[in-house]
Amino acid sequence: MPRSQKKPIWLPYTSSIEVKGQKLDFIYKGGRLTTEIKNLHSIMFYGAVCPLQQNFLELCSKYKVPICIHRRNMEQAVWITPSVGPHFNEDLLSRQIQFRNSIKKSTHICKKILEAKFKAMEWLVKSPTNWMRRNYSQKEMINIEAIHAAKYWKIYFRELGYENESRRSKNSLSTALDAASKFYSSIFLRWILYHKLSPHHGFIHLPCTYPSLVYDLVEPYRGYIEKVIFEKIKTLPEKPKDLTGIVISTIEDFMDQQIYTDSTRQIVTFQELFHGSVLALRSYLIGQSKGLILPKPAKPNGGRPIKAGYKLYGRSAGPTDFWEVASDVSTKYFDC
Fold first, then answer.
1. Could you tell me the pTM of the whole model?
2. CA atoms within a 13 Å half-sphere pointing along the CA-CB vector of 327
3. Comparing 305 with 235, which gets the higher pLDDT?
4. Distance of CA 332 to CAs 34, 117, 266, Å?
């Protein structure tokens, strides 16, 4: 099977791994998976994992299947990889640095991320005027984003009754939003490490002293998450001193909600878009797509399929009630 058709698997809190010839049987928190080693692109163990036996490691090495072990908020993952052979041709890290150093490519990535971010925040603040009509430099786009963010947060806090506070000041709402950001950012970090990208080399957040790529890829989805937080707080009869528990619970429920994404014509859970953003960047880096095509919530609109260069783990179009369901979920959760 061509490597491009193989599937990566992610297994949380794996308690058992059994090798049966060319088949692997995994028992993990929430289920069981039996698959042939030849079908796998890579394996990620998230959280605690049972001891890895020699026959399992040797089988993965034979079929060139790398193993990644990661825990939440760890910037460094544990990797077990086969020896580099003559067919090793997917050096994503080098391509990431090359694209970052290219003015044309880094500006394109920056523009696509911010375009998606502004769209996600239109429920509260309109996108900057003439945003798509001008060829802004990367620095100019970052300055525009900062002005837009200041306006967004001023209205956000005012509408929730925190008009005397700000996003950067110490208050219960900022504390809850910070906790929420840390919660869902850890999911992006997981997938960035899984696909062997550097979390420290971003395109909008430029310093390398923190996982800047994580905060780049979070941007297109913040607006949707912050909207459900906003709506939840609006329903509270009074403002509690500690909003963190309420906010995290609201996000957990929201991330399991189904949405339709036109980028791959699939119905997926919202949090699958997080993995999709990393897959989109990977696809652009290795030349499977002509640009950065981020998966975003949308309504079905027909036309030719987009050549995104990747697929998400979700329901795809087919001869069923797909389009009816896609239209329903897009209307229910998003006005876009």
1. 0.77
2. 6
3. 235
4. 35, 20, 16
